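Complex 353.
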Amino acid sequence: MDRDIHQIDLPKRVIVGSDILSKVPNHITELSLGKKILIVSGYSSTKDYANVVKDYLIDDGLECWVTHVDKASIDEIDRVSSIAREVKAEILIGVGGGKAIDVAKYTALNSGVKFISIPTTPSHDGIASPFASIKGLERPISVKASTPVLVIADVNVISKAPRRNIIAGCGDLIGKFSAVLDWRLAHRLKGEYYGEYAASLALLSAKHIVKYSEMFVARDIPIEAIRVLVEALISSGIAMAIAGSTRPASGSEHLIAHAIDVVANYPALHGEEVGIGSIVALYLHGRNWRKVRHMLSSIGAPTKARDIGIGKEQLVKALTIAHAIRPERYTILGEKGISSEAAEKIIQILELY
Ligand code: ZN
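Predicted structure with zinc ion bound:
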């Protein structure tokens, strides 16, 4: 492709509101997306939502099948791809949290069909982004997938997600502060493409959560807060779509989160790990890590290794290998990363254990 041409694929329609699942068939018809639909959902309560959507689609004369996944793995993607081929699906709908949405959006790209995102939990910014995290690939990082043509975020459904998942979504968004600092650094030091608009949009999503963080302190998080969170997660996803990479949304804090997954085999939710990674990343950037740590702890997000069930040695290990998770992604971790001695000191200064 011509290096001066920057292609941006965005969703055609994004709906955020209450009790909007019954309108899914209308949107599909209005946007002329197709008539044969395969829904991918998880096994938990998302299964029930998938059946609700299926009934609405069938009532409207569309053809619909449902399949369930328990992990976002290559095997599951192969299985879903072959069902999609068999039923000649024109649309794949991901109904659920990370796994169902990741499998649907990755399969959609490989199968050349349209992807619709119907999130049921707000724990990460993959709701509207064209990237998926798939287990079993060489590295635990996000890979290119389809941009959803339609995003339907029912805040009534999403508000029923466990509090922990909601708070994890806030953690994923806090990560944008250091992600954008890392992106700027890579631009200045390595001449990497930097898109100011995408960076600003990602930053806005993080600032938005800080601004409204008091709404997330309550035991029962109000529906207005869910709306703020969902809109911010969608904005972050759109920032990635505009940038054409995960750069605006993923920097050293995500490398640290991925390294924790490698060292301790996915001990916590992605957004929880990103929150802790953000404290370290902001400290390394010389920014106000105390403010972010305070905000995270005020909403009940983990701020220490033991909060996510990992030992001090595991955290030292994660900090020292984080830079090597994705060497082509230049961040404040540099090319050589954090030494063990420095990692010990960071843990002590930031009271990470
Ligand atoms: Zn993330």
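The first strand starts at residue 13 and ends at 17.
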